[in-house]
Amino acid sequence: MSDTHSDSAPSVHDSSEDRLAGSASPDPGDAGLEWLAEGSVTAAAGFRAAGIHCGLKRSRPDLALIVADASVPAAGMFTTNRVQAAPVRYCREVLAGGRARALVVNSGNANACTGAQGERDAAEMALILATALGAEADEILVCSTGVIGRNLPMDVLRTGIPAAVEALSAAAESADAAARAIMTTDTVPKACACRVELGGGSVVVGGIAKGSGMVGPDLELAAQGGAAHATTLAFLTTDAVLEPTPLAAMLQRAAEGSFNSITVDGDTSTNDTLLLLASGASGVAAESAEDRLLLQRAISAVAQRLALAVVRDGEGATRVLRFDVSGAVDEGQARRVARSLANSPLIKTAFHAGEPNWGRLMMAVGKGDRGIDPDSIAIRVGGLEVVAGGMGTPHDAAELSRRMTTDEVVIEVELGLGAAAATMWTCDLSAEYVRINATYLT
Amino acid sequence: MSDTHSDSAPSVHDSSEDRLAGSASPDPGDAGLEWLAEGSVTAAAGFRAAGIHCGLKRSRPDLALIVADASVPAAGMFTTNRVQAAPVRYCREVLAGGRARALVVNSGNANACTGAQGERDAAEMALILATALGAEADEILVCSTGVIGRNLPMDVLRTGIPAAVEALSAAAESADAAARAIMTTDTVPKACACRVELGGGSVVVGGIAKGSGMVGPDLELAAQGGAAHATTLAFLTTDAVLEPTPLAAMLQRAAEGSFNSITVDGDTSTNDTLLLLASGASGVAAESAEDRLLLQRAISAVAQRLALAVVRDGEGATRVLRFDVSGAVDEGQARRVARSLANSPLIKTAFHAGEPNWGRLMMAVGKGDRGIDPDSIAIRVGGLEVVAGGMGTPHDAAELSRRMTTDEVVIEVELGLGAAAATMWTCDLSAEYVRINATYLT
After folding, report:
1. Lowest mean pLDDT: which of A104-108, B27-31, B222-226, B259-263?
2. Hey, of A437, A440, A442, which one would you mutate to test binding to chain B, going by the most B CBs within 10 A of its CB?
3. Where are the domain boundaries for CATH 3.10.20.340 in chain B?
């Protein structure tokens, strides 16, 4: 993560490496991973990036490129919202072939609910980039994020995309510029990369992401027909040698413990997109089962680190809440309960202010699934037991309030029914969320 | 509705009769119904009420009674949250017999997550009232609302309930005192009553309700095993002659278009309860099919008027939003889409400020159901067309903003798939909601 902020949106977040690598992400764990300082989407060999201002926004960067040296194996996961932006539909078609050469992303305009013109505009964005790169339009991925329902001003993209191609480089500054150019209400750019040693040598996995509001992703593979809650965009790269099929499988697994386990407001966007491109430039493949596990861990860890950065930078957020639900009869039950907790306005507001009202946790557990046994529930907040056997246990309300207001709060919920578990991350709900979303356009 | 406010919580709401009988409630309609000025839970013959301060709260009224002259047919619908407060469990048992004599309600303490002691306390509340009335404890209904997880201070109830019995009367002032005594974060008491002429004479239906936060009821009949989102309490009375079975059926139907069609924050409470008692004191039964329809209309209209009063007085609310979803393949789809719209923080915030961001409506429609066809969606806001064929239509953003900020906004969503429809009501989301819920205990 960069610790610098966009000039127009001062941040209240400490985005140091240590914060993201902290206690919130023991799973899938990063044992064997070496996190790279200023690591980002070009840390993996074979990728260049650029981020510029082309004129979709008044003055902030609004156009990013990520370009591989050649057409490479690629996979994508997309929003399950039935109202899908034109670029989402375009990407699904491109990825049917399992390969891509490059990605163009604009912020400031979602190109959603824009009909046939929107489809033509997404295709033209791809064609402009393909022409500038000497590639084919069906090798180009397209993403958009911003206001829904407005046609793209294609004139600025017709000059902007070639200008961005001129700026392409593998330098960390270019990757940082790309991370900034995809931001909407984000207050900090989000990027990371790690190196992992496989049997045949080391490979790198990196990425950038943006989120902030309309965040509650529920992503599905391009080949499926799925569900997402936010404009969450995340772009991962690796220089490992990976064929399209195992690459898609690894991306799907990484999404479960990262973007599909976070929510800011539970509102699934029309544009959510998660992409992974594998350049193969390291010449190293994951040949053994152990190598495949290590590579999966690296991809999952990068995805999770980016997803947590999205939560931490959620609109109006002042802290991260992690709900660890265990003792469920199956993972579906655990996830329903975790999601019920993470999307409850009453809980998110209570944790904003340190209101020691643990009864709201019981409410959300009870409404989360019909198979709950209220008398077997136990709850800890920041390690402090507040519920056992479905009843409140003696605790100091002031101490509970203190544990509710740390930078990152772990809420453990044991259902006492079985052995399945799930985790969801969210942020608190502040008056600032209302202010931001009451004045998004104005 | 009373137009006076609780002394400690000044209201921003105009709660005149005209507001509640306005355009938001054409369905089930009130043709043939005569609304009674200052009508409430004792407007129907055969009922007395009381509301007093007994000491659960510092100074505001906190204990209410509604008492029939004898054991009468009764039915109840309760939260489907699996974490159910002790009084909910107690009421379910009482109503297994289809009759009740009286109801005792306290505010300030939910008696939820209180274990075996909570069960004993609910039973003791019933016994105290039964003793004071010369009735049996299994004829007494018990409700609680307030903070979860604290044992009731039974000493104040042991003196308070007999004192409330002394205050019982059929006078409008007593009914108003009861409506005030059940309030938590409500800023105004909620009550209404209407008279309807049946073949054999006229009957009256009335009631009181409270809501404010943790409101998103999903009620089921006592005999079933069901789902609710709020502490919503509503108590209806009628002097019609009605046997338990048709009475329960009428209550269930009334709940669908009222309390099960509203949401403030989507959080289903542990305590939601809707009760209907029929004294038979009018001596008039609904003998014909037409009479049964008229009586159903009266019960439904009272329930809907009270439910809309709960929405209007939602925590931090400044306006009511009504989502009319039509053109669905079935009612389930219509309700899922309407609920997705009504629970979206991004939409509720946009309507708070008049942010003309109609794309958020498309987002919520698309995430509401997997069978949506984005290209067939049409949307009007306050009569202004903003979407047709899934795309934005030309409209003046300033005019849209004006229509989003009326006292009551009707949002029409046509899915273009079939003939089924559903309506959900909610309120806007303001920074005041966060303030209220960040300081509920303190």
Report:
1. B222-226
2. A437
3. 320-438
Helix-strand-coil percent breakdown of chain A, rounded to 5? 35, 25, 40
What burial letters (b/e) apply to B388-411, b meaning 16+ CB within 10 Å? Answer: eebbbeebeeeebbebbbeebbbb
Start-to-end CA span in chain B (Å) = 29
Q: How far apart are CA A264 and CA A270, in angstroms?
A: 15
Number of residues written out for chain B: 442
CATH number of B320-438: 3.10.20.340
The CATH class that applies to domain A14-312 reads: alpha beta
Question: What does the alpha-carbon distance between residue B312 and residue B20 come to, in Å, rounded to a whole number?
Answer: 9
Q: Pick the residue with more confidence: B90 or B216?
A: B90
Tens digit of each residue's pLDDT (9 = 90 or more) over B147-166 = 889 999 999 999 999 999 99
Q: Residue B221 has what pLDDT?
A: 62
End-to-end CA distance of chain A: 29
**At residue A22, does pLDDT exceed 50?**
no
Provide the pLDDT for residue B9: 32
Q: Quick one: closest CA in A to B346, which residue? A: A437
Q: In the predicted model, what is the mean pLDDT of residues A76-94?
A: 94
Please report which helix (H) or strand (E) contains residue A143, including its range: strand A140-147
Catalytic-role residue among B231, B237, B273, B318: B231
pLDDT digits (tens, 9 = 90+) for B85-135: 999 999 999 999 999 999 999 999 999 999 999 999 999 999 999 999 999
Q: Quick one: tokens of A120?
A: 């033509």
Q: What share of chain B is helix, strand, coil (3-state, %, to 5)?
A: 35, 25, 40
- Give the pLDDT score at B268: 80
User: How far is C-alpha A249 from the chain's CA centre?
Assistant: 17
Q: For residue A278, which phi and psi values (nearest 5 degrees)?
A: -120, 110
CB of B370 less than 8 A from some CB of A? yes
Does the distance separating the beta carbons of B373 and A349 come in below 8 Å? no
* Backbone φ and ψ of B19, nearest 5°: -65, -45
Is A365's Cβ below 8 Å from some Cβ in B? Answer: yes
Supply the pLDDT for residue A430.
87
Residue A115: its chain B contacts at CB < 8 A?
Answer: 389-391
Residue spans in chain A of domains classed CATH 3.60.70.12:
14-312
**Residue found by looking up tokens 């009381």 in the block:** B50
Total Cβ atoms within 10 A of residue A370: 14
Is residue A420 predicted with pLDDT exceeding 90?
Answer: yes
